[in-house]
Specification:
Blueprint lengths: L1 H23 L2 E6 L18 H7 E9 L3 E2 L5 E2 L4 E5 L5 E5 L5 E3 L5 E5 L1 E5 L9 E3 L4 E5 L2 E3 L6 E4 L3 E5 L2 E3 L4 E6 L3 E5 L2 E3 L3 E7 L4 E7 L2 E3 L3 E7 L5 E7 L2 E3 L3 E7 L4 E7 L2 E3 L3 E6 L3 E5 L4 E3 L3 E3 L2 E3 L4
Parallel strand pairs: 1-2, 2-5, 3-6, 4-7, 5-8, 6-9, 7-10, 8-11, 9-12, 10-13, 11-14, 12-15, 13-16, 14-17, 15-18, 16-19, 17-20, 18-21, 19-22, 20-23, 21-24, 22-25, 23-26, 24-27, 25-28, 26-29, 27-30, 28-31, 29-32
Length: 311
């Protein structure tokens, strides 16, 4: 009798564990649709409606697919797990900024990819930035549009890493890309059009902030690429290659207002129709050219352009 009772208790415990695992099981691929419902399981046959529900349903390292054109959030979307979020080809997967950034990433050690998304502000909503990342995570943005924000399109603080490829960033009042205090970025095939400024690498602490910008167009706005540090031990570097920078106030700008080291290095690029082709301020700042660029039809320049021989 005692043995039978023990077996029944063990079976009941195992069944409880099985039900618990089933209840907590998460999807490798979660789905969103304009006619979905957040009470659904976020599967293909029963999609959810908004990103927070899908982020809860998807497993770390999984994917969230937007099946048709719609807006998929009603507030800032905080991403706290490794995930890929993408709209299927032909769909406009929209994430809007309302009362803050559209997407917020504060956790560390995540791997996140955003593909084929449209990130824009909701009118008169108190929107700020498009993507705001303070966690030391890795973010990739591909084939997307980030436009019309009152703040900066992509802002990264700390030691986070970002890759932006084949993406249009336009008509944002702040910077297209703002990197600060240890952040690093790789931009390739990006169009930065008529933003307040283009790309900023900034150190306000004893950190190294870097950006590589290749095969990219920067057109319009104030500063095209801006390497800036204000403190001893601060290092900022921007490397520009095979790019066009046109119709800006300062195309290439390197500044050390106080202390630190700032570098802009440019090769095989077109710098044209800008007010200043380059601007160099401060003893620790350098604008370096490999001598294979086309600098034409700019009004003037300020400071020293430092040549470097091809290796």
């Amino acid at each position: 009798m005692i043995r039978r009772t023990v077996l029944r208790s063990a079976f009941a415990f195992a069944a409880t564990l099985l039900l618990s695992d089933t209840a907590q099981a998460q999807l490798f691929r979660a789905y969103l649709a304009s006619d979905g419902n957040d009470a659904n399981a976020c599967t293909l046959v029963a999609p959810c409606r908004l990103l927070p529900a899908a982020l809860t349903a998807v497993a770390s390292g999984g994917e969230i697919w937007m099946l048709d054109s719609a807006n998929y959030n009603t507030a800032t979307v905080t991403i706290g797990k490794s995930v890929s979020i993408l709209a299927i080809p032909g769909a406009v997967g929209s994430v809007v900024a309302l009362g803050g950034p559209a997407i917020n990433i504060t956790a560390a050690s995540l791997t996140i990819a955003l593909r084929n998304l449209v990130i824009v502000p909701f009118p008169a909503s108190g929107a700020t930035d498009g993507v705001y990342m303070t966690g030391a995570s890795a973010l990739t943005i591909e084939g997307s549009l980030i436009a019309n924000l009152p703040g900066t399109a992509v802002r990264v603080f700390g030691t986070g890493k970002i890759e932006i490829a084949n993406t249009i960033i336009r008509n944002n009042l702040g910077y297209g890309v703002w990197l600060e205090d240890g952040a690093s970025a790789d931009l390739s095939g990006v169009k930065l059009l008529n933003n307040g400024h283009g790309v900023l690498a900034f150190s306000n602490s004893a950190t190294t902030t870097t950006a590589t910008v290749s095969d990219t167009i920067i057109s319009g706005g104030g500063v095209g690429v801006f390497s800036d540090t204000t403190i001893a031990g601060g290092v900022t570097r921007i490397f520009v290659t095979r790019c066009t920078i046109q119709n800006t106030t300062n195309a290439l700008d390197s500044e050390t207002l106080g202390a630190g080291t700032a570098l802009v290095a440019v090769s095989n690029s077109m710098i044209t129709n800008n007010n200043l082709a380059w601007a160099q301020f401060g003893t620790g700042s350098v604008v370096r050219t490999l001598g294979n660029n086309h600098l034409t039809d700019n009004i003037t320049s300020f400071g020293t352009l430092t040549p470097a021989s091809l290796q």
